[in-house]
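Raw record, unedited: Putative ErfK/YbiS/YcfS/YnhG family protein
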Amino acid sequence: MFIIKQLYLIMKKYIVYVGILFCFCFSTYAKNIENFRDKIIQQQILLDEQNFSTGKIDGHRGKFTKQALKYHESFKLKPLYNEMDFPLPYTVYRQNQVLVNDNFNLEEATTKRTGFNSILQCYKLPQPRSLTELYTFYTINDDDKNYLGSIPEKIKKQAKKKALPYETLAEFIAERFHTDIDFLKEINPQVNFKKLKPADKVKVPNVTPFLIESLTQTGVSKHLPLPKRIIKINTRKKTLLVFENNKVIAFFPITPGSQELPAPKGKWKIKSIRYLPWFRYDKRMLKEGKQSNNYHNLPPGPNSPVGVVWIGLNKKGIGIHGTNEPETIGRSTSHGCIRLTNWDVVKLSKLIKPGVTVEIN
């Protein structure tokens, strides 16, 4: 009996030691995973800020992150911070959001507002921004609810709405910070995303936010003082590249057309660029590429099938546009058009103007 008791005490002691060792190893492993994820987050933010989009910022070094990094490095742009080494800060670039109208005078602007930043603003090139933290906190305010609403399932009922807004605050915040709800839940384990309300704080990637409130139903002038640029789309690789002087200045992942209605190959011209567009929903057009008399005009909004921007080509019914399903970019099909996330298509719209050539192959 004594021997059995001693064996029990010894085994109990070893079990405690093994438990402590397991907890230590698991804690170390979890910390390493988190550090690795944060290095990828840093990489994704730096790429995103320089117009080399990884799609969504989620801490996964997937296909689009690798592609963005490849194009960024192959054209010898400003290198990422020592291959993602810590610590920060690092100076990155954000896209200028200033709109230039038909009356814009480049010579006058550069004369009155001298300096490097003035010229950058005139040409709508990226401006420096300091990245000191990978994450920040977003505080929900009362105005955010203005961009929420319900969306009926039936297209006929959607056409009767004034707008197609976000359905939840979680969706609103995810798109604002170029990510998805799953990643927000991962970095905010204590937050109940079904019960978000004003004054709640949510941890988000420290990326220049996509501001839905900054968009108005306007177009882009063909007289913008932009250098000559060209868009090249590869439907197989699902990539969109913006070139200037044979150099890539931007990369965006896309969803091209479907097998039934592929994106039209060839050279096209941008005919128009519209923010918060109405969308003519025509089943026959979406399936066969031919218009019918049976259609519905859907109102604008982030949950419009074409998102918040329509970049029309000189091919009837075909364009480059946003989406109401950012998580599907590069992973599904479209109806002859080219889809980007809403935050990416807004960035793209600031780099181009009507008349720009679009090559699809």
